């Protein structure tokens, strides 16, 4: 990717949470960072002057940018932590202060305290981390303290001293932040159960805590202790809303390789996520150019072998979206739900984002390749004999049956050609008859193109279902060009696409580019037609308001509107000014009507 200009790489970044990685000219990792919005954060490195000299040096060295998209900002934070621990990028150290990374400590003592620290003391205490930011540590500890009452004092709470009544409860007990183990108000067994649940939360596993609280809440509610049950419910809400996502750090999923594939007519994209000890440590997407009509299964099998060799992966467990045949010692899993499915979905999401990035970059670097791909896709999706380089779309507008009009919009190479758009006043139809109006406008459009020996479109799109499509076909029959132009109808409700003489509609994938272009055509025709219709209706309303004045005809109205532009200005004009435009006798009639 390093051959693509930085500006092009920036333009294709998504506005999603994720982690970005900067690489130098020799493809060495320089820096790992997290972002709530990847596009904004990464672009900020390149569009402002940095005061810190080391940041300026970093920016000068960047030659390529890679990113991993994740569901939330907290996921990005955890993934950043994993990647920094794995790769130790040079500038992640240089750009930080000289302190060590923060840890969360569960002290080895009776009724253990939990606190943040930058000192790693080997006294049998448990340390979780390191974290890349003290902010993360405080967020996690705030969450824990809001759910579990823990002691903050540093007393030696030995059984003898507590039994002797050596200590008295402090303000924390009265505030409800501590259950008072110093006076024996909380059993050690109960406190240690809390500590075990906190260990799981720090690892990212909330299940045991949630299960315990839900059981407790139901029991309290059954005993009619609704206020206490509500307090427990508040704790459940805090846990569920925070959720240090198990997608990024999950102690249950050990050393695993995850592979997913998405493909189109020409290319396939295989994403690889590598998990080590429950943490994602790598994301890589490979672009494969198809030679023949290879299946996704064939391509995925080849890609798995190649990617595992490239990254020297020794994992014996592999998650894939469908069954593939690999070496006998490898355990192949096709997850259907739960945490394993979440990690598979994350991989697929990154493959899709990679594909979108490539499309955006190609649109800038090689717009012809982008157009050719879309045209090829439309030809396949809509079962056409040729690529629809020139498309016309028709729409009728007749709100409340008045002033029926129609619009024809033109797309060339998948883009609007606005200078070729045409409006039509419906001449042969009285009242709101969509079918007859469609018949008239299609006939008039292609009769004219034939008379002027203009080229005909490769595809006609009719806004409407079977009825409008049949009406358009009648006109093509009369003109003798049916079968020479492909024609389809698109019904609004479920976006069904109808073909001539086929009662069963086609449903395209809602995310397919072919459907998006047809929808864009339809929406553009609707917008263009409605604008013309509104103008015509307002003009008709103005004319009828002025023409309803006795002795004022169409020509006088035209003359007035030419000079005054609106009825409001005509109403505000003086008698003398009106007389200069249309003469005193007519001016008096208008002036008296409005005053």
Automatic annotation (TrEMBL):
The keyword DNA damage applies. SUPFAM superfamilies: C-terminal UvrC-binding domain of UvrB (SSF46600), GIY-YIG endonuclease (SSF82771), RuvA domain 2-like (SSF47781). Keywords: Cytoplasm, DNA damage, DNA excision, DNA repair, Excision nuclease, SOS response. Its main location: cytoplasm. Residues 15-93 form the GIY-YIG domain. Residues 262-476 form the UvrC family homology region profile domain. It is found in: Cytoplasm. It holds the Pfam family UvrC_RNaseH. SMART domains: GIYc. Belongs to the UvrC family. Interacts with UvrB in an incision complex. NCBIfam families: uvrC. The UvrABC repair system catalyzes the recognition and processing of DNA lesions. UvrC both incises the 5' and 3' sides of the lesion. The N-terminal half is responsible for the 3' incision and the C-terminal half is responsible for the 5' incision. This is UvrABC system protein C. It comes from Arenibacter arenosicollis. The gene is uvrC.
């Amino acid at each position: 990717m390093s051959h693509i200009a930085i500006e092009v790489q920036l333009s294709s970044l998504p506005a999603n949470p994720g982690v970005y990685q900067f690489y130098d000219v020799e493809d060495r990792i320089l820096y790992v960072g997290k972002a709530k919005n990847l596009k904004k954060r990464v672009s900020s490195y390149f569009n402002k002057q940095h005061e810190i000299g080391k940041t300026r040096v970093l920016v000068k060295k960047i030659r390529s940018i890679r990113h991993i998209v994740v569901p939330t900002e907290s996921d990005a934070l955890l993934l950043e932590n994993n990647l920094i621990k794995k790769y130790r990028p040079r500038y992640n150290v240089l750009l930080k202060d000289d302190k060590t990374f923060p840890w969360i400590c569960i002290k080895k003592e009776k009724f253990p305290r939990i606190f943040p620290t930058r000192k790693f003391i080997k006294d049998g205490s448990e340390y979780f981390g390191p974290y890349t930011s003290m902010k993360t540590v405080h967020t996690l500890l705030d969450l824990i303290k809001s759910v579990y009452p823990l002691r903050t004092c540093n007393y030696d709470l030995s059984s003898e001293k507590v039994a002797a009544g050596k200590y008295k409860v402090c303000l924390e007990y009265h505030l409800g932040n501590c259950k008072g183990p110093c006076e024996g108000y909380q059993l050690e067994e109960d406190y240690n159960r809390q500590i075990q649940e906190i260990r799981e939360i720090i690892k990212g596993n909330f299940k045991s805590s949630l299960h315990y609280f839900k059981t407790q809440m139901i029991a309290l509610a059954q005993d009619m202790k609704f206020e206490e049950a509500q307090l427990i419910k508040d704790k459940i809400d805090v846990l569920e809303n925070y959720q240090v996502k198990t997608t990024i750090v999950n102690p249950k999923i050990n050393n695993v390789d995850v592979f997913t594939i998405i493909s189109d007519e020409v290319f396939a994209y295989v994403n690889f996520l590598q998990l080590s000890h429950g943490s994602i440590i790598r994301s890589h997407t490979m672009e494969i150019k198809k030679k023949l009509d290879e299946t996704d299964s064939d391509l995925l099998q080849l890609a798995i072998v190649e990617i595992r060799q490239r990254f020297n992966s020794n994992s014996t467990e592999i998650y894939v979206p469908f069954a593939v045949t690999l070496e006998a010692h490898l355990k192949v899993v096709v997850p259907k739900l739960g945490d394993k499915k979440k990690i598979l979905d994350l991989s697929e999401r990154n493959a899709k984002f990679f594909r979108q990035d490539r499309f955006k970059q190609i649109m800038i670097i090689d717009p012809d390749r982008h157009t050719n791909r879309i045209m090829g896709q439309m030809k396949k999706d809509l079962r056409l004999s040729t690529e629809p380089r020139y498309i016309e779309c028709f729409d009728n507008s007749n709100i409340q049956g008045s002033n029926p009009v129609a619009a024809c919009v033109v797309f060339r190479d998948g883009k609007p050609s606005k200078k070729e758009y045409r409006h039509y006043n419906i001449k042969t139809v009285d009242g709101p008859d969509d079918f007859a109006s469609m018949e008239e406008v299609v006939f008039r459009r292609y009769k004219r193109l034939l008379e002027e020996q203009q080229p005909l479109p490769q595809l006609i799109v009719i806004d409407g279902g079977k009825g409008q499509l049949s009406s358009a076909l009648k006109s093509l029959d009369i003109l003798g060009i049916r079968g020479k132009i492909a024609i389809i109808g698109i019904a609004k409700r479920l976006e069904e696409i109808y073909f001539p003489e086929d009662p069963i509609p086609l449903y395209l994938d809602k995310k397919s580019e072919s459907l998006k272009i047809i929808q864009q055509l339809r929406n553009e025709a609707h917008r263009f037609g409605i604008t013309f219709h509104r103008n015509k209706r307002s003009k008709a309303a103005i004319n009828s308001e002025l023409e309803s004045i006795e002795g004022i005809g169409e020509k006088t109205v035209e003359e007035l509107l030419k000079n005054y532009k609106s009825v409001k200005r005509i109403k505000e004009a003086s008698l003398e000014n009106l007389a200069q435009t249309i003469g005193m006798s007519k001016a008096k009639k208008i002036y008296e009507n409005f005053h």
